[in-house]
Amino acid sequence: xxxxxxxxxxxSKFNQTEIKAMLGSYTKVLFIRDPFHRLIATFLQGMGINPxxxxxxxxxxxxxMHNSSMAWKPLVSLCKPCLIQYDYVVMFGFLRHxxxxxxRRAGLPAGGLLPELTDSQVQSTYRWLxxxxxxxxSAQQKKQLSHFYxxxxxxxxxxxxxxxx
Length: 165
Fold this sequence. Notes:
By secondary structure, the chain is mainly alpha-helical. Helices cover about 50% and strands about 5% of the residues. It has one domain (about 10-155).
């Protein structure tokens, strides 16, 4: 499908036949992350200019779906998992195990190519951080966040997500 490969990366620029041909010629991998953890990471990286996490969350909620940043927009609106049949879905926190499998599947040596990933340490740190930040939110904000990410929570299994509790 070389004639279809252009500098344009948005599938919406191609017709249905071209899209089907392109998607059929690739191994499709979707990397996902708990939406609440994505919000925490965005806030910590300074994209939220508000002084508190609660204020940042209110900014996200007030912006709604159409004005949301790619950093916290629901995954189903970005990746279209109902329309695109992904070959692999890899969840943040399980990267070491999943990437080893993907490399072996591609015929590459798994062990030496990846940096050391400490998934269990990352998971426990994020769990503690999420507990602290989730406690700052009002009951109304928690409810609104769960509603905002309802399709992500339905499409993907996020074990122990605060938004699904």
